[in-house]
């Protein structure tokens, strides 16, 4: 029943993405993302404006089709000094990470309809100082429930992340921001979800950043 709800939501949201032309908002989204990352550093001891530490990383992704365009976001974060990583699909819905830089050669994944940089693949644990993870989504609600494309790639990845963080005493959790078009953020509706869905902490749209869930 619950997965039927998810399927119905997905087909509605995909139809809306196909049928509605969206104004190009890549530059605005890039500004929103950079300002949010900067604010994380401000809240973490007044570091805003100071140079990034060498090796500070962000996990993001390369948008496809009618997803909000992340091309400029990736370029902006890289130019600001972040080491920027994007996911690579692996068998059994697992994900590895690879470095994105402007002009990096790319190939189409054999496992999902996405482009991926050619280059060394890293496990998340191999990445140093990940400041935040930006995730693709079809929709997100006010509690941080994220509806993705339905592969379960990110849910599996996040489950591993939580297990790993839980095993390290005092480890700080990484902020998780779903990226959607503004009308795909549903602050007052509860999206269908199950026990395997890992909630996100934030949402980014071209209209701005919002903190989600009980921690806000
Ligand atoms: N840009 C992007 N990269 C990603 C994901 C994603 O959702 N978006 N993934 C998340 O797990 C993983 C790949 N899995 C995917 C599984 C299904 C579809 C998919 O069905 N896409 C739609 C088109 C989407 C659109 O145009 O808005 C399709 O092909 O109909 C995409 C990615 C990792 N990389
Ligand atoms: N931690 C997990 N371990 C094993 N299977 C999982 C896990 N998380 C999700 N799944 C399975 O993956 C499938 C897709 O899950 P779901 O519909 O929540 O995907 P999604 O979050 O929309 O997709 P994505 O994360 O790829 O964007 C479901 O069959 C679900 O049971």
Automatic annotation (TrEMBL):
GO terms for molecular function: 5-formyltetrahydrofolate cyclo-ligase activity; ATP binding; metal ion binding. Its cofactor is Mg(2+). It comes from the Bacteria. The keyword Glycoprotein does not apply. Gene3D superfamilies: NagB/RpiA/CoA transferase-like. SUPFAM superfamilies: NagB/RpiA/CoA transferase-like. Keywords: ATP-binding, Ligase, Magnesium, Metal-binding, Nucleotide-binding. Its EC number is 6.3.3.2. It catalyses: (6S)-5-formyl-5,6,7,8-tetrahydrofolate + ATP = (6R)-5,10-methenyltetrahydrofolate + ADP + phosphate. One of its GO terms (biological process) is tetrahydrofolate interconversion. Belongs to the 5-formyltetrahydrofolate cyclo-ligase family. This is 5-formyltetrahydrofolate cyclo-ligase.
